[in-house]
């Protein structure tokens, strides 16, 4: 069994629904802490920079090779923050972290047994991002960029919603490309209002089959056909009318569905044998990262999907969202 700690950024808050949970919560936290100490001492631990969006940006940077990316998020003022900064910036990504004193950096413990995985996340500082950091420190990076990618997970962070809208409105006003990932089905269920408010600014919407199905359900669309749903997402109202929206629905081992102004097309993924699969953590994030790299290089949608499929296959064959020094796929 392997254990690696995935240092995380973006996440959601768990609401305590009963007094019994509140009563036992401190004991449960202490239990998890003691278990983590045992696991760290008993097994070899790998510390890997993570978080859905940061994974995608790191993979895009790896595919591009020349320093081309920046990432904004929130950490604590602790050793994990130092570890995360070193790991995330090692590949060339420019990290711009808000530091929250008194709050630990978010972590996610991942247990790998064979080809099965279990995850326990401690979101922590990831939920503390504030728009004041974006306005005081992050905006120069925003203004210098031409492409923006944000996960729907950030809609769960109080400071995330205004930050998303700030960047989205800048992108629309300047004719730049703004992209969002639906993140998870629960985002479409419980954070529908801020999601719907952000969608008009989205030039590209990423999501998997369960997320697109839940979005359709939340919006009252009477269909489960992923091609129809992707087409309807692509046709939704858009703030920047200078370019049509692209709706991308990944589907595990099935072909990726992409809806554009010209219709719906399916693109194959890179097939993997069971023996090649080491860890599926970050595979979807890596696909997006490869796609983003192709997009930045001005490649066609088909070429971008090939880059995404290559990146995902590389990550599946390794522990966590990691990769060799240079990609074999050249953009």
Write a structural description.
The protein is 42% helix and 22% strand. Strand 10 and strand 11 (254-260) form a beta hairpin. Helix 2 (52-64) packs across helix 10 and helix 4 (131-144) packs parallel to helix 5. It contains eleven helices and twelve strands. The protein has helices at residues 19-42, 52-64, 79-89, 131-144, 160-174, 185-190, 192-198, 209-218, 226-234, 283-296, 301-316; strands at residues 2-7, 45-49, 70-76, 94-100, 107-113, 116-122, 147-151, 177-181, 204-208, 246-251, 254-260, 263-267. 44% of the residues are buried. It is an alpha/beta fold and 331 residues long. The chain has a six-stranded mixed beta sheet with strand order 7-8-9-10-11-12. A four-stranded mixed beta sheet has the order 2-1-5-6, with helices on one face.
> What do the pLDDT scores average to?
88
Distance between the termini: 36 Å
Portion in beta strands: 15-25%
Model regions low in confidence, pLDDT < 50 over at least 5 residues: 1-22
Estimated structural class: alpha/beta
Determine Rg (CA atoms, Å): 19 Å
The ordered string of helix (H) and strand (E) elements is EHEHEHEEEHEHEHHEHHEEEHH
The number of strands is 12
Largest sheet: 6 strands, mixed
Name the shape in a single word: globular
User: How many DSSP helices?
Assistant: 11
Helical content (DSSP H or I, runs of 4+) = 40-55%
Lateral strand order in the biggest sheet:
7-8-9-10-11-12
């Amino acid at each position: 069994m392997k254990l690696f700690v995935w240092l995380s950024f973006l996440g959601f808050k768990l609401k305590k629904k009963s007094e019994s949970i509140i009563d036992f919560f401190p004991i449960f936290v202490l239990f998890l802490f003691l278990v983590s100490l045992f696991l760290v001492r008993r097994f070899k631990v790998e510390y890997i920079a993570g978080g859905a969006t940061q994974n995608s940006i790191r993979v895009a940077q790896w595919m591009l090779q020349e320093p081309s990316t920046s990432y904004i998020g929130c950490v604590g003022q602790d050793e994990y923050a130092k570890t995360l900064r070193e790991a995330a910036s090692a590949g060339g990504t420019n990290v711009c972290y808000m530091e929250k004193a008194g709050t630990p950096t978010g972590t996610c413990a991942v247990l790998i047994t064979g080809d099965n995985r279990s995850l326990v996340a401690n979101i922590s500082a990831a939920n503390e991002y504030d728009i004041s950091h974006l306005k005081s420190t992050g905006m120069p990076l925003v203004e210098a960029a031409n492409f923006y990618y944000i996960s729907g997970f950030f809609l769960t962070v109080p400071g995330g919603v205004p930050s998303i809208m700030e960047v989205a409105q800048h992108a629309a006003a300047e004719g730049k490309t703004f992209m969002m990932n639906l993140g998870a089905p629960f985002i479409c269920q419980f954070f529908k209002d801020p999601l719907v408010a952000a969608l008009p600014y989205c030039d590209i919407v990423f999501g998997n089959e369960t997320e697109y199905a839940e979005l359709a359900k939340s919006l009252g669309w009477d269909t489960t056909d992923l091609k129809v749903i992707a087409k309807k997402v692509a046709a939704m109202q858009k703030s920047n009318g200078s370019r049509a929206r692209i709706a991308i629905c990944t589907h595990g081992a099935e072909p990726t569905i992409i809806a554009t102004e010209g219709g719906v097309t399916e693109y194959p993924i890179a097939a993997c044998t069971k023996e090649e699969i080491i860890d599926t953590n970050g595979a979807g994030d890596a696909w997006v990262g490869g796609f983003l790299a192709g997009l930045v290089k001005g490649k066609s949608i088909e070429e971008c999907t090939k880059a995404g499929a290559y990146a995902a296959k590389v990550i599946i064959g390794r522990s966590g969202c990691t990769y060799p020094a240079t990609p074999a796929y050249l953009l």
